[in-house]
Amino acid sequence: MALSKLDNLYRQVILDHSEHPHHHGHLSDATNDIELRNPTCGDVLQLQIQMDDDDRIKDIAFSGSGCTISQASASMMTDAVLGKKAQEADDMVEVFSELIVGDKSVDTDVLGDAAVLEGVKQFPARIKCAMLAWKALHKALAADDHVAKVASLHARDPKEDNVNDRD
């Protein structure tokens, strides 16, 4: 019975973030910008970041279309990384990735609400949905010119894939 209540709580957090996403919209003064697509399901996410002079995420916004999991994950991710230095945010991408697809135990405290997405690993078709915003963050922070226009979720690493080219 207690597990069922916990599952319902997690579901409610995900639904709340999907229906009322935080940091949804556009930034007119973004320093980093990327559009990332998940071709397997059609989710599209545009992520815009405004970095300050101290390499800290001053503001962040996302837009696009996608399923409940991808929209909730983007909302949770923006909450978690706002105010973090670029390296801290990129480290959080690694923690989230390990949480969703890894087999090691990770400290999820840094992820905030996003930790509830751990259950997605039970549904392999949804893993890419949950990872979309986090991969976009990684690629946007890693892009040399900070404007990675369009990329595919299937690209393994920004160093291996020129995210400035359309694919």
TrEMBL record:
Pfam families, per the entry: NifU_N (PF01592)
GO biological process: iron-sulfur cluster assembly
InterPro entries linked: NIF_FeS_clus_asmbl_NifU_N
NIF system FeS cluster assembly NifU N-terminal domain boundaries: 10-129
One Gene Ontology term of the molecular function aspect: iron ion binding
SUPFAM superfamilies with a match to the protein in the record: SufE/NifU (SSF82649)
Signal peptide (UniProt feature, chain positions): none
Protein family per UniProt: Belongs to the NifU family.
Name this protein carries in UniProt: Iron-sulfur cluster assembly scaffold protein for SUF system, SufE2
Organism the protein comes from: Agrilactobacillus composti DSM 18527 = JCM 14202
